[in-house]
Structures are given as structure tokens and as C-alpha cells.
Amino acid sequence: MADILCAAFNRIQTTGWTMAKVYIPVGSVSGTATAVAEACADALRAAGHEAQTDSAASIEALNSGAWDAVLIVTSTTGRGDLPSNLAPFYTALGEQRPAQNGRPFGVISLGDSSYDATFCNGGALMEDRFYELEGQAPVPRVTIDATETQTPDVDAIFWLNEWMEKAF
């Protein structure tokens, strides 16, 4: 993991990216999405950006931070639902409709492909909501399958490097 972070930092240093502030709403049931979000926040910080994870995401936090980008990290639960700690944020986004005005966003969606019809649906819901609010996804949502990987944080960092490259 440290090698991946160092490589990301070295690549970013040489391309002259400027520091960005990234808000990271997290939806987690078992803690895996939280661990992935923390790994992403560490990678963003190592690259010179500011990152804040939030397992109690709110419209107030989204609006108060002068965030340059939003990175949603969520698992899926039940019948394709968002975890209970992220569902109120999703609902509030739909009710209050805070315009994103082209703000870059990304979605890391964790799930289990043995649930075919609802695989990573939590991430799909969040992605659709941010598109509705006129956010811009510089790269498509990534889905991380628990049946295929033992290192979801490493998989997420691989995707995050491309997202950072195109978002900032």
C-alpha cells in the first residue's frame, strides 16, 4: 500500500497539480467502506490535497467546506439500499437539491456480485443523485466486488489515481 501511495504522490508532484479540498461521504455497514475511504483520504493527503471523511454526511457539511470535489465511498445493503448512515444524506440531497454546478465527484461502490440484481446499487444511487444535481464525474463509478478481492483499498487507490488525474 505504501508503494502505491508513494507512486501516486510522485506522479502528482511531477504533473504540477494544485491542492484540492475533497469531501468524502461514507456509507458503511461492516466497516470495509470506512477503511477504503480512509485509505483514499490518506492517498489524497499524500498527494498534497485536503480530504475529510464523513460517516454522518450532511448537506450542511457538503455546503460548508468550500469543497473542490466530492468522493462518495459506499457499500450496498439489503435489497440494493444505501447503508443507514448514508441514506439520510441521499434523501436530503433529493429534497434540498443543492446544485453541484459541475463540481467533480466520484463514486467507489462496494458490494457482492452474488446479489446480481442489486450489486453495488448503493453507489449507483449516489452516482445518479449527483448527476441529477449537475455534478460531473471525470471517470465512471468503480465497483469493487467482495467475491473477487481481498484488498478493496488497493483496488480503490488504483481507480483514485485516475480520478485525481482527471478531476483536478
Instruction: Give the C-level CATH assignment.
Output: Alpha Beta
State the domain count: 1
Q: What is the number of helices?
A: 6
What structural class do the secondary elements suggest?
alpha/beta
What's the arrangement of strands in the largest beta sheet? 2-1-3-4-5
Largest sheet: 5 strands, parallel
3D shape:
globular
Helix content: 40-55%
The CATH homologous superfamily is named: Flavodoxin domain
Instruction: Determine the mean pLDDT.
Output: 91
Taking Cα atoms only, what radius of gyration do you get, to the nearest Å?
15 Å
Secondary-structure element series: HEHEHEHEHEH
- Rounded to the nearest angstrom, the distance between the terminal CA atoms is 23 Å
Q: What fraction of residues sit in β-strands? A: 15-25%
CATH topology: Rossmann fold
Low-confidence stretches: 8-15
